[in-house]
Amino acid sequence: MPGDAALPLAGIRVVDLGWITAGAASSTLLLDLGADVVKVEGPGAPDPFRRWDGAEPGSDWWNRSPFFNFTNRGKHSLCLDLKDPRGREALLRLLEGADVLVENFRRGVMAAFGLDIAMLRQRFPRLVIASISSQGETGPDRDMVSFGSTLEATAGLAALTGAGEAPVITGRDVNYPDQVVCLFAAGAICAALLERGRTGQGAHLDLSQRELTSFLLGEELIAAAAGAPSPRRGNADPAEPEERLVADGAGWRVEWPGGSAPVRDGVALAAAEDFARGTAVLRSPDGTPAKGIPFRFANRTLAVQDSCHDLGTDNRAVLAAAGFAPEEITALEAAGVLATAPRGG
Amino acid sequence: MAVAPLAGRRVLDLGALCAQRPHALAASMAARLCAGYGAEVVRPLPSGGEPFAATPPLLPDGGSALDRFLNAGKRQGATTGRFDVAIGDRASLAAHAEEVPVKARISVFGPGEEDPPMTELGLMALSGLFGIVGEAPPAPPARLAGHQVSYSAGLAACMALLAALLAGGEEVVDVSLLDVAAWLNWKVAAGVMVMGSAPVRGGARVTWFTVPAKDGHMALVYQDKDWPPLRDLIGDPRLRDDPRFATGPARGANRAALLEVIGPWFAARTRAEITAAAQAKRVPLGPVKWPVELLDDAQYRARGFLAPDGMPALPVGWDGQRLTLEGNRADAG
């Protein structure tokens, strides 16, 4: 049975500027591995996931977005205006004690805040900075605007996906590259912490979601370079020639020698015992469903340990821990550099 | 000093000894990533040889591109010797990795449960990740190309074993192929559990799909705020005046009518022309590219992502450098 050994990232401090899934859920994985995560959002630019489907209108809609709360459970919340020089200065003080910074802003936004990466690397040489973006930090397409499914198209996945005549993208209900990058980015951050242990140096990790999506089709790229065809195979898997997709009442079923599986929709998935026994969705201490953890440890208990904090709840505690005097914090509050609600909310 | 977070670490890749293909692919990917991070990766082979040696896609020289991709940076060897990490399924780990301090164990459902015979498409079906992708019923769902479910499990396994190495000491990482796929598909599960209704394949709110262009397809991807500039770009007054196109749900429900209006505009232009025009208005449309087209992609070339033989670099720039597979074969091993 899992014991009480410290979690692997215990003592690691993460400053999370991540938005929606690609950035924010990468930080959540670090949290689940034991890191202390402070999510920083500006009062003029909260995580767009706060304005999503199901965010009930009301006095504090920004604290009621189901998908935001699902994803960001357990993080400290600091609402700090990075466009204000005092806010920028506060973030820099926070980074003095931090091990990891995660961001997935549009390229150029960090520099516009006066937080360009070269300066951060020089000032905080042990800091691991993970920049997650569509195309990467460099190259002629670095400023191309994309959502996850745009990248499925540009990375080669859509061309090879589809049971009919048209290539298929997963759409906003999956946005596959946004999901899978979290698994790779959190791993790369762990690798960078190992490398820091070896060399004493932090790193800037330039993570392109498009590149990852192509990497996950690596065999097709190698085949294409050798002149072998890489056609759209629909639902056929050449490695499983006896596998079949068959109609099953109103739905579908996959059959193969030795087994079969229903093609589940969301209702069937949520009702399935194997899903409930698993770790894909867990519960926050307040009982609400929460983003799960895609693995287990035999010697350590992994769990969702805290519910979602309201915006700015931890302003004072986070800054006090970073060495701010109470009167400094009060002054930032009075100036609106710290907040507990979006501007114009 | 070259960046090599796993320099000096020895990884036992039991992917070739896994009983089932999804497990084998996941373990092989996790070990492949370890090689990318600089570990010495040893891959023992069964008596029949490399199990992916004849797995598609096949190359003109008769080899397997899958074998070439997944086993790059690894060497064949025995299960004996000191290892820091072992990656495999339950049986291969029990047989060959008893003494290895960090183990990553791939299964269908997780620890303590039997592994039934399983395929990648079966996992995709059970996780809901098959049912949500593709055109609306009665069209069948669409399988994500390649080995996404297994490779994602490999990514998860690699992350967890890197964390275990940071912690030091012994650990067994359990990665359930089903849990990882369902974790990727969280919006569908959370839709039911926190919103009260699940998104469905090809539902009325789906407004993203691919559209034929002059030389291929475009991915039509946009948010509500992008509709006015997109509509103005296409320039047909019906897009502005017809109530069937006024809102996202209306456009989703009237997709055939929408396609009648926008289809000719897309069909008359190349992917490059459409992409340039849309991007100039910050609308996130993108071209559907085939793998062969990526070999000559300007962005990938500028970033040194693909080698001339198509081999992708580990998809991370590290202080502006790429990690290479050279030098981690641990001649010192």
Automatic annotation (TrEMBL), chain A:
Name of the featured protein: CoA transferase
GO molecular function: transferase activity
Organism ancestry: Bacteria, Pseudomonadati, Pseudomonadota, Alphaproteobacteria, Acetobacterales
InterPro entries: CoA-transferase_III, CoA-Trfase_fam_III, CoA-Trfase_III_dom_1_sf
Organism: Siccirubricoccus deserti
Keywords: Transferase
Top-rank lineage group of the source organism: Bacteria
Membrane spanning residue stretches: none
UniProtKB/TrEMBL annotation, chain B:
Listed GO MF terms: transferase activity
Keyword tags: Transferase
Recorded superkingdom: Bacteria
SUPFAM superfamilies xref list: CoA-transferase family III (CaiB/BaiF)
Gene3D superfamilies registered for this protein in UniProt: Crotonobetainyl-coa:carnitine coa-transferase, domain 1, formyl-coa transferase, domain 3
Pfam family, one: CoA_transf_3
Family annotation (InterPro entries): CoA-transferase_III, CoA-Trfase_fam_III, CoA-Trfase_III_dom3_sf, CoA-Trfase_III_dom_1_sf
Keyword Transferase: yes
Protein name as it appears in the record: CoA transferase
Biological source species: Siccirubricoccus deserti
